[in-house]
Design brief:
Layout (H helix, E strand, L loop, with lengths): L1 H11 L2 H7 L3 H18 L15 H13 L4 H20 L5 H7 L18 H11 L5 H17 L3 H5 L6 E2 L4 E4 L8 E4 L2 H14 L7 E3 L5 E5 L2 H15 L6 H14 L4 H8 L4 H5 L4 H7 L9
């Protein structure tokens, strides 16, 4: 009887839940979104939770790959989708709900090679200043303080947006002005000592935000602060609104990470130290974030407002 119960429990276990629970918290929402996209391609009105991932086969993964490329999705996005699908397939195999041959065939679907032609940019000192100025124009005082802190934390600590929204109150030490990133890529922890300007912005926000463990939370239209952490999508919307108010060209949250790395290198910081601050495993990855040549071509100032 116990074996039958165990078998029944295994059948009830959601493959996608097991897969997502095995990821760092900062990456779960993104991968869940990519699985939703894949499920919608494979089945009308399909979702990550409703699709039967135990039936995933080589032809399905190949179809998702082709569909995304036909619809001009960025190469990085397509490869992230492929990684999610292969991860789900591996999980299904580990749960003994996908055979080894199907898994092996799925893993042969090749990543997409090439250049997206759009690698982002680093913002200038003046652009960062305009962003914080735009934050100060919001009619809600709370929004002003939170949004300014978000901009300066991203620029002054080089966090990935997933790392930003995962920050907890315990992750910031006002005495040492240090942020501890506990949900970094690859589950790596790192510490970053921020500049006094960034520290003041963070502390000003924490002073008024009220209860709740998450540092960066939503704010209701009524003006009340939510205890629920912002999502990466929410931060993207906030930055997009600020860019519009400031009259800036479009940029992504990751461009603020590029800004952080570029400015440190401009100031003569050792690239290995920058690598560690950015949470990169390899210096070759850090080099890809070096936009000093672009700065020279476009006349961008070589000083960062918050570092």
């Amino acid at each position: 009887m116990s074996r039958l119960k165990l078998a029944a429990q295994q059948q009830e276990t959601s493959v996608v839940d097991v897969y997502l629970n095995g990821l760092a918290a900062s990456g779960r929402k993104s991968m869940f979104s990519l699985l939703n996209l894949s499920a919608a391609i494979l089945k009308s009105k399909g979702t990550a939770n409703s699709y039967d991932w135990t039936q995933l086969r080589y032809e399905h993964v190949a179809r998702v790959r082709a569909t995304l490329l036909d619809n001009t999705y960025a190469i990085a996005t397509v490869n992230m989708v492929l990684a999610a699908l292969k991860g789900v397939a591996q999980t299904a195999f580990n749960l003994q709900r996908l055979d080894a041959e199907s898994l092996a065939r799925i893993k042969t679907v090749k990543r997409v090679k090439g250049d997206n032609g759009n690698k982002g940019r680093a913002l200038s000192r003046e652009e960062v200043k305009k962003l914080t100025g735009a934050a100060g124009k919001h009619p809600q005082k709370l929004r002003q303080q939170r949004d300014k802190a978000i901009v300066l934390t991203l620029c002054g600590a080089g966090l990935r947006v997933g790392e930003l929204v995962a920050l907890d109150i315990k992750d910031y030490c006002p005495k040492t002005q240090t942020l501890t990133v506990r949900q970094g890529k690859g589950r790596k922890h790192r510490q970053i000592t921020v500049s006094p300007m960034v520290a003041r912005a963070i502390q000003a926000w924490l002073k008024v935000k009220g209860d709740g463990n998450a540092i960066y939370t939503g704010i209701c239209r009524s003006g009340l602060v939510s205890q629920k952490a912002l999502t990466p999508a929410g931060v993207t919307v906030i930055l997009s609104q600020l860019a519009e108010v400031a009259g800036l060209e479009a940029f992504t949250p990751h461009d603020l990470r590029r800004t952080f790395i570029t400015r440190l290198l401009e100031q003569g910081a050792d690239i290995n130290i920058v690598r560690q601050l950015a949470g990169h495993s390899d210096i070759s990855t850090t080099v890809l974030y070096d936009y000093r040549a672009c700065a020279v071509r476009t006349g961008i100032s070589q000083r960062l407002i918050c570092c």
